[in-house]
Amino acid sequence: MPSQHPHLTSPVTLRGTTLRNRIVFGAHTNNMSDMGLPGPRTLGYIAERARGGAGMIVMEPVPVHRTGVLTRGNYLHGTDDIIPAFRKVTDAARAEGAVILQQLYHIGAHGDSDLSFQPHWSPSGHASYHDSDGSHRMTEAENRRADRCPYRRRHPLPQGGLPGGRGLGRLPLPPRPVLDPVVQHP
């Protein structure tokens, strides 16, 4: 039976990477990390989505800085310890025919100091929309350091099987919601 949505189910090439279809399983927080690493539950969860036919899977975000931790289930930040665990997940997704990416993030003033045990940082220093704690107003030097964060530029995930460098997931500019004081206003 022919598809009612031929474009949705047809392959597409993005930046030299061919997806088997245009079905994307978007990033979201599933909180399945095992001590900050993607373990057997994450592997099974992602492999099942790939097996189900997703052309592209965007993994749960990894904070780029200690002040960006938002949930108890966030993956480890700033360490290469996540590479072998991500390699297992990416190999499983690829074996099922999916392209897999990793989202990197920092949530600025919307952090959670109770979970990260760190002050949340933002260019504005304003409070978050979900609490009134406020945030550490980043100095110009801290803002520049976050912009040049070696972890963000040399993220270990390409070694874990996820695109980096010129791959699909590479951002050419700093993430504006973190660095733009206008966006940080509640």
Describe the structure in your own words.
- Strands 3-6-7 form a three-stranded parallel beta sheet. A two-stranded antiparallel sheet has the order 1-2. Strands 4-5 form a two-stranded antiparallel ribbon.
- Helix 1 (40-51) packs parallel to helix 2.
- It is built from six helices and nine strands; from the N terminus they run βββββαβαβαββααα.
- It is elongated, with a radius of gyration of 18 Å.
- The protein has a single domain, classed as TIM Barrel (Alpha-Beta Barrel), CATH 3.20.20.
- Helix content is 24%, strand content 17%.
- Helix 2 (83-95) links the parallel strand 6 and strand 7 (99-105).
Short description:
By secondary structure, this protein is α/β, with parallel strands linked by helices. Helix content is about 25%, strand content about 15%. It has one domain: Aldolase class I (TIM Barrel, Alpha-Beta Barrel).
Task: Give the SSE map.
Blueprint: E1 12-14, E2 17-19, E3 24-25, E4 33-34, E5 37-38, H1 40-51, E6 56-63, H2 83-95, E7 99-105, H3 113-116, E8 121-122, E9 136-137, H4 140-147, H5 150-153, H6 176-179
Parallel strand pairs: 3-6, 6-7, 8-9
Antiparallel strand pairs: 1-2, 4-5
